[in-house]
Amino acid sequence: MINHIDSFPRYKSHYTRSVSTKEFLNPELSLSKMYDLYSANEPHPVSLSTYRHVFYTNFNLRFKTVKKDTCKTCDQLTVSAASAEGEQKTLLQEEHNMHLQSAEAAKKQMDEDLHRALLDTTVETLTYDLQKVLSLPRIPTNIVYYKRQLSMFNLGIHSGSDNKGYFYVWIENEGGRGAQDIGSALLKHIHDCVPSAVEHLILWSDSCGGQNRNIKICLMLQYVLQKHKTLKTITSDTVFLDTVFCRTTPNLETSNVPCDDRKGCTYLKT
Q1: Between the CA of residue 214 and those of 118, 130, 183, 217, what are the distances in Å?
Q2: What is the pTM (predicted TM-score) of this model?
């Protein structure tokens, strides 16, 4: 039974892999389905309750990945305020409100930057985000549950100047999800899609270390600034977003892909 549970491939969450040891099974699996697969090939299977007990006590596995990012500061303040009393509770609630106000200010600034790029031909604003890992192929055959599926990565970039989204897609044998991979896609977009008249480039993203909070991305942006014919400034607002991500939406395109994927129709631009 333990060997059977251990035979299923598992994955790390894209969003919480740095702070959690949980691993995730194929989201189309369930405990009942796993038990059915187990009992179909076991002459003397244990009961479902025993199978469930072993699953939850011997393994740190889940069936669904985190659907969206959550703000660490919001989570911490909410939990602390719930267990606090009196003046301490009031102070925590006030701190949370100030945090939310800062988040609203960041969201407002990002919207203003996007609108500015729409009106001013010398300004371009890009928001970008890496979607959660997509596993291929998407087929319901039972044998897939025992196989290590191919991972596909998708970086979504939203352009303020034309109000359009662009997807840069690659599979795991072509690259990973580190700084060089993100930087390569971002560099290609700047080279191919940023209008030639742009003098000021504004970048918005979350605080993921593989996207902007690292020296490789900084050096890439320095290279762009030195080589680009018209660019005079590049502004990155990632560090600020580290504390106010709870109210910002760095990229709208990647959040819509899972919905399209469930409908069986995903449109990708490369």
Answers
A1: 29, 16, 10, 6
A2: 0.65
